[in-house]
Amino acid sequence: MADAKVIPFDDDRSRARRRPARAEGEAAAVRALPGPKEAPGEPGEPEGASGAPGPSGAAPEPGPGPEPAAGGRSGWERRLAGGLAFLRRRVTGEYEVDEFGYDEELTDQVLMSLLRPLYEKYFRVEVKGVENIPAEGGALIVANHSGTLPLDGLMMQVAVHGNHPAGRHLRLLAADLVFVLPVVNELARKAGHTLACAEDAERLLRAGEIVGVMPEGFKGIGKPFGERYKLQRFGRGGFVSTALRAGVPIVPCSIVGAEEIYPMLGNAKTLARVLGFPYFPLTPTFPWLGPLGALPLPTKWTIQFGEPIPTDSYAPEAAEDPMLMFNLTDQVREQIQHTLYKLLVQRRSVFF
Hints:
The protein is of the alpha/beta class.
């Protein structure tokens, strides 16, 4: 398979949909636009098309309407042609990725399409406050983390792209473990995820991207079921420092429903050390039911994006102020925790 072209990340063209450049002298396909309606009898109008009498003097019978079957075939033909063109570009390498490995075309046409049924039909995600995400420019979305497996990050990614009026993409910051697992590593890169480090996050934010971070990390995703919806420590405020340096707003995000998909009742720490994992979950179904135990419970989710916290009013050196870091980190954490409790009070059931 041919290699894809790599786009420099600071190239403004990286935000537009990419298409392979035409070879020099290659003619573009031209689609004729519908012309103005012509009066009856003018050249180009079929005889009797306007209801005027034809050569026999009798008004023509009304023509049959569009056949649904034909329209259906046309729609399927367009989809098939698009799919074949997509496959051809993948095989020949006529697609582009940015220097982080993000493949927008693959994400839009394949990865989002695969995740959307899980998002819409299985977890039935309800999204609130999407208007708090800027229509343009960078922003840092900070969310709680839970669920034993990081499905909450993927659902948040679908929520942003599917509900934002501008159809913006969320670039998630992921842990080192994601990028050492086979297959998962490649898929994560293609979906726009990158290593959770300040340098990468700042470059993305300065380039005007929406970046998502879950500061609890493994402490949040691997906490016992008895501690559900209780936020763990948010680290040392590195995400606040990054947002201050880039001058972008911080958008708190609260996710309800992910805690119950894999109720973690225990942790096989010895097995986790052997496998090199931060924890090895024991749930009511896993590992007792084998692969079937990896099926998440169909809980009802709510994702709420809170009021953005601006950072552009601070001086550049504010990113080095530890007290400011602590205060802003605590403000974000408290806003997420308060919203979690409010959403928990409002929900009728874990599953409905």
